[in-house]
Write a structure and sequence with these properties.
Layout (H helix, E strand, L loop, with lengths): L20 H14 L6 H14 L3 E5 L2 H11 L7 E4 L5 H9 L3 E4 L22 E5 L10 H11 L2 E5 L7 E2 L2 E2 L6 E5 L13 E5 L2 H10 L5 E3 L2 E3 L8 H12 L1 H18 L22 E4 L3 H10 L22 E2 L4 H9 E4 L7 H21 L1
Parallel strand pairs: 2-3, 2-4, 3-13, 4-5, 5-8
Antiparallel strand pairs: 1-9, 6-7, 8-9, 10-11, 12-14
Helix pairs in contact: 1-7, 2-7, 3-4, 8-11
Length: 377
């Protein structure tokens, strides 16, 4: 009797840690004995390294990706009653940060090719109350930032990016975190650049924004945008910063493994059923926080993969304009592409420890199911 096949998980958070385990343990012991646990050398060095990696003037570590969104929007001048245009096909935190500022998320539809906000839909959503645009490079796919920035510059709007899933993503030859006034990062353990708990950062094109955020995160009062902001506790601790720095040094190597898994999936899955980057991907790089496939019978495909021992993910079904918190939001017209994505998109396993043979097996299963659907249509 054959032994049951081991399941292929969506994530493997442990295996990529093994090559750097001894380094992390050794650094932790030094930290433990130093007595400097908050906003010391590890945080400072991480901020410097992230700023260099992201091509920005400065970077500020904060307690979480959600906190990063909140402080970035506040320093961009989002005030109560303002509107922030964003995508409905994203995680709740994008919307929550806007609502917590007593501002209004305004949702516009997405593009079917990369699931990112559609710049062609932004102009019609702008009102006298619009203050900012918040693009989200979903699953690590670059947004069309030239088009978004052109609209923002012409209409006098700020661009604050939610880059929680897009560390390392490249847009037209430059790091996408440098494409807005500010861009936020998350170091949640499932991210491509992970910590071992919560953590986030704000990448700032202008050092003055970084200086204000450093004051806010440590309970200092800040006067900006004609408003007095109370400080709060949003400090990144030394342990998280240390682990993130170790993983940052290995990021390129781990990303190569993700890229290889994505290339294997691409070799099996029809182009019309997966991400398609603008300009055919020239001067672009997607970091594949998730690898998605579009399938009309998503549940049928999910059952086939589950029976084969493969865990999958379903994201943003329904999209945020159908969320309970949508009472605080505004939808700029119908959002059929986002709703279709909510019904059809399935995320396959992709991580630095996924065996390439398993990637081929999963790709073949997906191809077989999609081909069978097409033959029966």
């Amino acid at each position: 009797m054959n032994a049951p096949q081991r399941r292929v998980g969506r994530y493997d958070l442990v295996t990529p840690m093994l090559p750097c385990k001894d380094e992390i343990v050794g650094k932790f012991e030094k930290l433990l004995l130093s007595g400097r646990y908050i906003l010391a050398d590890e945080v400072r060095l991480l901020e410097e390294e992230l700023a260099a990696a992201c091509g920005v003037a400065d970077c500020v570590g904060v307690a979480s990706g959600s906190s990063a969104l909140f402080v970035a929007l506040a320093m961009a001048g989002v005030r109560p009653g303002d509107e922030v245009i964003t995508t409905p096909y994203t995680f709740d935190a994008t919307m929550e940060a806007i609502i917590l500022l007593d501002a209004v998320p305004v949702f516009v539809d997405i593009k079917p090719t990369d699931l990112n906000i559609d710049p062609a839909r932004i102009e019609d959503a702008i009102t006298p109350r619009t203050r900012a645009i918040m693009p989200v490079p979903i699953f690590g796919a670059p947004c069309d930032m030239d088009a978004i920035n052109e609209i923002a510059a012409r209409r006098g709007l700020e661009v604050v990016m939610d880059n929680a899933q897009a560390f390392g993503t490249v847009y037209r030859g430059r790091q996408i975190s440098s494409c807005g006034r500010m861009a936020t990062l998350s170091f949640y353990p499932t991210k491509n650049l992970p910590g071992i708990g919560d953590g986030g950062a704000v990448c700032c094109r202008d050092k003055a924004d970084a200086d204000l955020i450093r004051r806010l995160r440590a309970h200092q009062v800040v006067r900006a945008n004609g408003h007095l902001y109370t400080g709060w506790n949003s400090r990144l601790d030394e342990v998280q910063a240390m682990v993130i720095r170790v993983r940052l040094a290995r990021f390129a190597e781990e990303q190569r493994d993700r890229d290889q898994v994505a290339a294997i999936y691409d070799s099996h899955i029809p182009a019309e059923c997966r991400v398609q980057l603008d300009d055919g991907g020239r001067a672009m790089r997607m970091t594949y926080h998730q690898y998605w496939v579009r399938c009309h019978d998503r549940e049928g495909l999910r059952r086939v993969l589950d029976a084969a021992g493969v865990d999958v993910g379903i994201y943003y079904d329904p999209p945020l304009h159908r969320h309970e918190l949508a009472v605080y939001c505004r939808a700029a017209g119908d959002l059929p592409v986002a709703e279709r994505a909510g019904r059809e998109i399935l995320a396959l396993p992709i991580h630095a420890a996924l065996p390439f043979a398993e990637a081929h097996r999963i790709g073949e299963l997906v191809h077989g199911f999609i081909s069978g659907q097409a033959a029966g249509a």
